[in-house]
Amino acid sequence: MNDGRQWQDQVLAGPGGAMTDEVGVITGPLTLRTTAVAGGLLRMDIQYTDAEEWYTLTGSPVPHRGDPAAVHAAALASVRAGHGARAPGATPA
């Protein structure tokens, strides 16, 4: 789903998975959803594919300038790489 305000794609997390605020690292087949929200921010949520619960990708929301789809693509690449992936631009712990 990519409608200009929200982007959503499935992604297989790399070794070390993706870091969430609520439950720590999640791994395996995931779905990443990026939503443009007020104030020029992008909110990134992630879930186990086909689960009901969504978690905040650590570092979200992030400010953006330019193409929000490119930020979503960068987040997907980060999750594919794993290593406790965070939202693009987030400071590592």
Salient structural properties:
single chain, 93 residues, alpha+beta, five-stranded antiparallel sheet, two-stranded antiparallel ribbon
What quaternary form is this?
single chain
Largest sheet: 5 strands, antiparallel
N-to-C SSE series? EEEEEEEH
**Helix proportion of residues, in percent?**
10-25%
- Structural class from helices and strands? alpha+beta
* Rg (CA only): 12 Å
- Measure the end-to-end span: 31 Å
Secondary-structure blueprint:
Layout lengths: L5 E7 L5 E3 L3 E3 L2 E9 L3 E8 L6 E2 L5 E2 L4 H14 L12
Antiparallel strand pairs: 1-4, 2-3, 4-5, 5-6, 5-7
What does this structure look like?
- With 93 residues, this protein is of the alpha+beta class.
- The protein has one helix spanning 68-81; strands at 6-12, 18-20, 24-26, 29-37, 41-48, 55-56, 62-63.
- The longest helix has 14 residues, at 68-81.
- The N and C termini lie far apart (31 Å).
- The mean pLDDT is 93.
